[in-house]
Structure to design on (400 residues):
């Protein structure tokens, strides 16, 4: 993972991992009956003991709309009026497991986003006049939604002009600035166009959780897995950090000491085009969502995953195949670390250093709960690691 989650608050998590077995084998597992069960359980055991009522329903609507369109660029006033008809009905719909509203709103959002993308393409064919004075409010969260399509088009035009001007003032050539904006909006469209019903309903359930408490959240199954990895700082896989780029899954970095690093043949910037489990047939992953590709590559330690990659060479593109045995990957970069500054190595940062100084760096909070249950006196956690570093510093006569 490129980023490790910093756990700064208590998170109240519900996951599709706790869904009834009836949905386990369906591609879209968040069916109405499953949502009904999740909502019932959430309301029953949430610490606040608030009822799921009309006041919560209004908050759900506001949070869901703000999650999709925080800057009020996409939805129109007519959309909002239509959605507000449901602002005191969402609580009843959720209790029944009715998820149509969430899907309908998301569908409308995609329609509006596509309209803005088409407008952007038209704007960039024109020449902006940056010599005229104008006003633009950067934070539009509290601004009214566009009155109609023409109003939305003008707001969007001003935003594009502001973004281009900002890039130009930062030293970016106009053509490059235009390319960046186009890539940004196309990327946004690509991300949302890959959402399935489960993804949309997860957004809606998260809005419900936030409506009860800002520190409560719903986590879909995959999100919970990633959260668990960030807590344990370990996973079973090959030890490669991946990114999504123009339809391809690209190797961003190789984790030192991991299975891919020991294998030695998978390289940074390789483009993964197909994945196979053991001796099974290859499955194309071109244009597949990054999370889905990650799930194909991760797996139980000791099992084999085969990768087919494209690699640039002097002669063009080479197609290569690798077999890598999955193993436990430890994310060392997230662990507590220490560094000692010696007096004789004073620098411009510490010019008058007279004592040995120890610095403790804690990139993330972590604990392996399974290990804690098995080895209560010897398990890995951020607090234990910091304590061990601290204890060690006292024996080495350090100032910390």
């Amino acid at each position: 993972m490129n980023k490790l989650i910093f756990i700064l608050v208590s998170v109240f998590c519900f996951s599709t991992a706790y869904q009834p077995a009836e949905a386990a084998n369906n591609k879209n597992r968040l069916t109405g009956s499953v949502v009904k069960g999740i909502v019932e359980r959430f309301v029953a055991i949430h610490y606040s003991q608030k009822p799921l009522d009309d006041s919560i329903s209004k908050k759900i609507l506001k949070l869901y709309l703000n999650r999709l369109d925080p800057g009020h660029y996409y939805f129109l006033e007519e959309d909002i009026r239509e959605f507000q008809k449901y602002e005191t009905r969402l609580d009843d719909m959720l209790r029944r497991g009715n998820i149509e509203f969430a899907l309908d709103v998301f569908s409308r959002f995609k329609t509006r986003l596509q309209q803005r993308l088409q407008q952007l393409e038209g704007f960039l064919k024109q020449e902006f006049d940056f010599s005229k004075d104008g006003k633009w409010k950067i934070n539009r969260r509290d601004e009214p939604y566009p009155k109609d399509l023409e109003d939305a088009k003008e707001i969007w035009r001003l935003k594009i002009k502001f973004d281009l001007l900002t890039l130009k003032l930062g030293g970016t050539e106009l053509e490059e600035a235009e390319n960046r904006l186009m890539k940004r909006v196309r990327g946004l469209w690509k991300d949302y166009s890959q959402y399935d019903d489960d993804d949309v309903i997860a957004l809606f359930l998260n809005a419900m959780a936030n409506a009860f408490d800002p520190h409560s959240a719903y986590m879909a199954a995959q999100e919970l897995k990633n959260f668990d990895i960030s807590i344990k700082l370990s996973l079973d896989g090959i030890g490669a950090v991946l990114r999504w780029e123009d339809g391809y899954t690209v190797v961003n970095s190789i984790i030192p000491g991991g299975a891919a690093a020991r294998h030695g043949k998978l390289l940074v910037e390789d483009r993964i085009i197909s994945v196979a489990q053991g001796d099974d047939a290859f499955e194309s992953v071109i244009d597949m969502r990054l999370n889905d590709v990650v799930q194909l590559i991760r797996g139980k330690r000791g099992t084999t995953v085969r990768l087919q990659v494209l690699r640039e060479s002097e002669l063009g593109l080479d197609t290569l195949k690798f077999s890598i045995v999955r193993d436990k990957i430890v994310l060392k970069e997230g662990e507590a670390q220490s560094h000692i500054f010696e007096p004789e190595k004073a620098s411009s940062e510490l010019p008058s250093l007279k004592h040995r100084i120890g610095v403790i760096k804690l990139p993330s909070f972590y604990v392996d709960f399974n290990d804690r249950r098995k080895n209560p006196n010897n398990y890995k956690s951020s607090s234990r690691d910091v304590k061990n570093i601290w204890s060690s510093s006292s024996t080495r006569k350090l100032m910390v």
In short: The chain has a mean pLDDT of 86. The longest helix spans residues 100-123. The first strand starts at residue 12 and ends at 14.
